[in-house]
């Protein structure tokens, strides 16, 4: 268990200096008082936790405090020490007395061999002049990249030696105290050492004094990630430990503006460029402290990217050969070695902190590509807006008299400035790499670097070509493909409001084209326009849909977007005003004498009491702060060996915030429980569930996560269909598997069923070249005013002769129009929904027959005719497919049909351009899916369905294949998933397979979140509570609670399949467990067990619970059965069960349905022996779901077979008064799996994976 305990503030405290014997020998060899000796430093003292020994614990009779180093691997250093206390600094004293050896347990990641040199990087000198104490900072990095941080103070004390009678002046010898921590608390540890110096000025250095100082620091807990800071009193200063922003972000406890005081914007950008390009970078300064602090600042500047090469901010004089390393590195040297390092090594980036210059070892200039222009311009402007001088900030204030109050004011100013600087640098990184996500294929983990580079400006290409080859960028890609919710992702989602990702990058709309070319009156048309998927319906403003992190996320409330012209493009300049997060400070009790066990135990006990008081004062809705207090108290209880109390705190933490849940520590606690503790667990149901989950998780086989990233490459061998599907998906052309199968058939017409790599290359090149040409599309203003704002031109013909004049035929997702030659004009040919007929006719010309395309429109008598010549067959196919897609989209009220038709058309064009053979048109016809369906197996939608159906949406839009809609939940307008939405619109939550939840804006039915990941198991039910929470039950035995305002999730355990009632918060699981929850504390108020094989659901009616399983049982609130209802006799022989129930209290009726029956059974509530009426549902094989809406019962059913060519999912609307079927609705091609009501105005239905759509129905 010790290995899993979070480390405290102190990892080790080491005293370094010259031993008394060596100092004596060196002085005796000196010839004059002016000789300044340089000695080899060595470790004099090592102090590591635990400081309360086992003997102390045994004598006190109290169980020993648990130490995190007891089971940790370490090496033993034999240290000689004098029995007599040292009389001089560093342990020098009388030579009398026997020497003994002492075993010192040192943490495995602290290298005592190199530490003395780093504590005295300039050497240990004996001087004849006193000097002030000096601080500097260290960073140790192990082979795994784990970092340990140190703060060193060097002191000079008078050496009272009497070995040379010739010395009449005072001599001063140095020693250093180094405090080492796992966390980068530079300012806090510096303040701690400053407090120790106050004591050392009045008394000599002693081992016990340093040990007591180290022991006090070891008692200080580290705050968990979040906004809870810890403060403790070390006298005379109050020391603050800021928390990390999140688990991935280190604590910020240094002044991030230091590089801004040393360098201009140009130099800062050059340094960042050198780091991102993994150059060999060396910092120089005459002040050792600046080296580490400035280097650490730049590590924060590139966050969330991480430096992954050797990182040694301070090199001692003996370590200068490190700069000869051939690999990338970041190191720091004293300014005295600048010329030496520059002369000995080539290709170094030399950074002089003191002069603010950046040069190379080869020349005075740096041969590095410039940062992308727009990113650099934004950074420079934002940097100018920073207030970097504290004196200017407080010049209006009076003089302070309380040092701690003055320090607090200074710290608040620094904290706000750090926050602003982090925003500026994060915006820089986001502006640099924002477009990377558009070239990622998440399913196959592919990055198309070539296409990404093609979208960059010419002047920016050198920068991106180098950065894209680095380890830093490779790890960045891994995080993007893993959908990591870090600072980059959060700002990216806020900055880039875009439509839901479809198969290809989106074409510019008329509105965007007007904005793009508003200052350019010239007309410029390309022959080829881009081939990408359309924007359908109204213009939407969507977040790029994200996987929800199980933690609190603050979304900026306001921001600044600026379009700047750069080269031939107008580029979005991002600048956000993000308010700093509110901070809560928890003060630790006064530190006791740290070397006495019972005092330490009393300290922990007092700390637990204070945390309990803090918890009781936190309102239940402030779950974020509550979670942090539970974390700290659980940690303290663990240190006190109060395992059950610790598990109880971690159980409450799990129910409040999963993100900071210490999984490994909880597992270790469970494994360490004694027999008497297990007997107590049986009396505490919540702990029992927690332990059950921990043990279940331990038994699960861990699957190694796929962490690879590959660049897209064109295939070099022939491809069968399966490999072709993968390659097309990787390329980003199309995701839908069925469409790719049709494309495979088209490209293999008349030949063996495999794709030649050359054919693939030509097809891919044709597609991408057409896409690139689309970026320069320009239509005259006179033409754009006739088109809708969200309309795009997808195909443009050559100049042809028509009966309306000479011009180019243009195709958008809505219409065909003629762009006349000469002075460009607009002549509408037809909208696709108005087409009555499309055919090819032949006009004789001399001995030839010239083909022409004729299009008849229902709104015009005159038939449009165009002499398209060789392109006539292709245009005929494309117009027919668009016509068929438009017809089906209107008939089914499903805009995705039109979107798919556009995809088919664009693929046809690419196939014809690729093959260039006589069979090209025949091959392209394989892609005319909707035209073929229209003529071969037309699906007639019944009139009743058309009148009731309002719209259809696709929750699997971003997936390769449709998924089953398992659960639907509508939440009213006040319940918003993110404060960034701002509109307060209602939401539709849709649970798909694998724990995936998709969220729609129920006002516009546009997708807002396409991947809220809730576990990995199937989700069974969802419920909106208290206007700001959504409870989601999963088959993994967990209820996930999503705070819709804070994007925060927590969990509670239920031990099986989860469902619940609407009003009182009851939950049930498949094993028959029923739990009543306290909403404010998420604690179990009541629990009882039912005897059943499979409990399906639970509902609350008139004070009693109705449980649906193999039978229906009415329960009293105490859990005792009241009445039981079994299946009707004729259904008992069938392998069926109740699927749903509805209770009508006002009518005294109970309606039930069965999964394999085509009947609804109506029962009298007072007589449950047999149903008094049955309602037969025609052509139904089973009922899956049933809801009551007004005076109607909506029933979702399975059809006879999952046949794509005819409806197999039906919805029956049954009148509750006449008990008759009013309507039969058929809009799904697979069984209806979920129903929900939207405030009685609409009913939403979701279907199984053969269809995977959601239909929106009007309620009359």
TrEMBL record:
Subcellular location, record wording: Cytoplasm
GO terms under biological process: regulation of Rab protein signal transduction
A Pfam family recorded for this sequence: uDENN
One GO term describing the cellular component: cytoplasmic vesicle
Gene3D superfamilies linked to this entry: 3.30.450.200, 3.40.50.11500, YVTN repeat-like/Quinoprotein amine dehydrogenase (2.130.10.10)
Keywords: Cytoplasm, Guanine-nucleotide releasing factor, Phosphoprotein, Repeat, WD repeat
Residue span(s) of domain UDENN: 82-487
UniProt subunit comment: Forms oligomers. Interacts with 6 of the 7 known isoforms of 14-3-3 proteins.
Name this polypeptide is given: DENN domain-containing protein 3
